[in-house]
């Protein structure tokens, strides 16, 4: 009888390492390595953190997450510098696409558009039932 119960991350990883090669062969026609790498950057002004960003590079796609600039430091190029640092690092490591989501109508939409990101899909009733927009930039 099948029983479903809580698992540890270690068990999940061990099981996945054994089983994913079968699924990958079906999906990609070969064994693949997702090569997951995570990056975190901060921007400082006189040793004080004024912005930060996180990104995950997975199978050639950079997922941008957690970009935030201090509320009294916006409009000074900090967000752009952080995003470009992450983009440059990911590109060097072979990224072919940058991907993120942001809230529909948020000021961040204009910011990402200025950086060359294009809206490609709407996520209806996403976080807290608000609409979000998927933005991507192909390299
Ligand atoms: C969105 C955010 C990261 C932008 O950071 P920032 O440091 O203010 O942006 P920058 O000064 O680097 O601006 C870069 C470019 O985007 C444009 N831009 C930034 N915010 C803009 C806005 N609200 N409206 C219009 N253009 C904007 C700038 O004009 C600038 O263009 P330029 O390079 O041609 O001069 C920042 O406002 C923030 O932290 N917001 C709250 C958190 C958030 O929304 N994070 C993103 C969620 S996914």
Automatic annotation (TrEMBL):
Domain N-acetyltransferase, residue spans: 1-139
Domain of life: Bacteria
One example GO MF annotation: acyltransferase activity, transferring groups other than amino-acyl groups
Pfam family, one: Acetyltransf_10
Transmembrane segments: none
Name of protein: N-acetyltransferase domain-containing protein
Species of provenance: Candidatus Beckwithbacteria bacterium CG23_combo_of_CG06-09_8_20_14_all_47_9
């Amino acid at each position: 009888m099948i029983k479903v119960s809580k698992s540890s991350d270690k068990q999940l990883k061990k099981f996945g390492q054994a089983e994913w090669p079968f699924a990958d062969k079906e999906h990609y026609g070969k064994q693949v390595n997702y090569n997951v790498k995570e990056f975190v950057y901060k921007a400082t002004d006189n040793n004080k953190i004024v912005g930060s960003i996180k990104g995950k590079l997975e199978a050639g796609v950079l997922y941008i997450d957690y970009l935030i600039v201090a509320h009294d430091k916006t409009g000074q190029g900090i967000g752009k510098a952080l995003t470009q640092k992450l983009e440059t690092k990911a590109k060097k490591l072979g990224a072919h696409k940058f991907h993120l989501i942001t809230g529909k109508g948020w000021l961040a939409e204009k910011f990402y558009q200025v950086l060359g990101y294009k809206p490609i899909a709407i996520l209806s009733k996403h976080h807290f039932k608000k609409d979000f927009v998927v933005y991507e930039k192909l390299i």
